[in-house]
Design brief:
about 140 residues, alpha+beta, four-stranded antiparallel sheet
Length: about 140
């Protein structure tokens, strides 16, 4: 019985440490985009209520710029704890006319990550960013 309890505790500890080590951050994703040769910059200003992104249920957000799309064009990387909130925001971006932020924009969700990019980006280029996320 003691041996079984010891085995369970060691497995629990190993699983816990692996989970914390494998937790991906938005900065990790940006690094992966850059390593894949994708154009991405971080703006100097921070997200504020002026951008209309307050209280949308995300845990973290990172604005990203793609200079080739034009000045101030790019999108956002979001990290969520709640899958329901992620799906709500994804639907918001994907359904034309519902969003005053980025109508007809590209959106891709995987696990707790949501990537949203301006409709100024071609679908082919957007798919290159999606591939990086799929490989995480």
């Amino acid at each position: 019985m003691v041996l079984l309890l010891g085995l369970i505790l060691s497995l629990t500890t190993a699983c816990s440490s692996n989970e914390s080590e494998s937790a991906i951050t938005l900065d990790d994703i940006v690094t992966k985009f850059r390593e894949a040769g994708l154009e991405i910059e971080s703006p100097t200003e921070s997200i504020s209520e002026e951008h209309g992104l307050a209280n949308l249920g995300f845990k973290d957000v990172k604005p990203i710029l793609v200079p080739a799309l034009g000045e101030g064009e790019g999108g956002y990387l979001f990290l969520f704890e709640d899958k329901t909130e992620l799906e709500k925001l994804k639907d918001y971006y994907e359904e034309p006319g519902k969003s005053t932020l980025m109508p007809n924009s590209h959106a891709y969700a995987q696990d707790n990550i949501l990537l949203q990019m301006s409709d100024q980006m071609s679908q082919t280029e957007f798919d290159r960013y999606v591939e990086v996320i799929k490989d995480l």
